[in-house]
């Protein structure tokens, strides 16, 4: 776990405590998030998860904006409860008033799409049907799929496509 990220989480909590004149319980912080999201706040578990790849590629903005964004979710939840909107006025108040940052809902980081394997299946129609790894595994375990157009059972061609 990067020390800078943990230090930034702590700094965000201290800023909120100075602003609201009260203590907040510290969250569990994990670096186990993949995909397009930079960070996620689990409100009921008081937990933060961050994306290590997006952190490495966007360190400065990630520390300044993303960490504050996610901490603000936990602070808003602890102050105002379950009924508030995720990016509503309470969260925006914390972003602007406490952290003096724009209340941006989404990041604009470049996200690398994972290359996925598609398994090609055929029927009587001219175009093949690409299956995901998960669906292909279900076929291997005996599940059958039918073409919606020609109603013929789809059969694996033996071909794979990486895209």
From TrEMBL:
Coiled coil: none annotated. The keyword Zinc applies. Keywords: Cytoplasm, Metal-binding, Zinc. It holds the Pfam family SprT-like. GO terms for molecular function: zinc ion binding. Its main location: cytoplasm. Its cofactor is Zn(2+). GO terms for biological process: response to stress. Belongs to the SprT family. NCBIfam families: PRK04860.1. This is Protein SprT. It comes from Metapseudomonas furukawaii. The lineage of its organism: Bacteria, Pseudomonadati, Pseudomonadota, Gammaproteobacteria, Pseudomonadales. The gene is sprT.
């Amino acid at each position: 776990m990067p020390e800078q990220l943990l230090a930034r989480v702590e700094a965000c909590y201290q800023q909120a405590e100075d602003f609201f004149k009260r203590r907040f319980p510290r969250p569990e912080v994990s670096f186990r998030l993949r995909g397009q999201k930079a960070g996620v706040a689990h409100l009921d578990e008081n937990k933060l998860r961050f994306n290590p790849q997006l952190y490495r590629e966007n360190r400065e903005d990630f520390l300044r904006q993303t960490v504050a964004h996610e901490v603000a979710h936990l602070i808003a939840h602890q102050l105002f409860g379950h009924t508030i909107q995720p990016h509503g006025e309470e969260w925006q108040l914390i972003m602007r008033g406490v952290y003096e940052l724009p209340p941006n809902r989404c990041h604009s980081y470049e996200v690398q799409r994972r290359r996925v394997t598609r398994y090609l299946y055929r029927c009587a129609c001219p175009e093949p049907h690409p299956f995901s790894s998960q669906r292909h595994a279900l076929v291997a375990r005996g599940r059958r799929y039918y073409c919606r157009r020609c109603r013929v059972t789809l059969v694996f061609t033996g071909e794979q496509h990486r895209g």
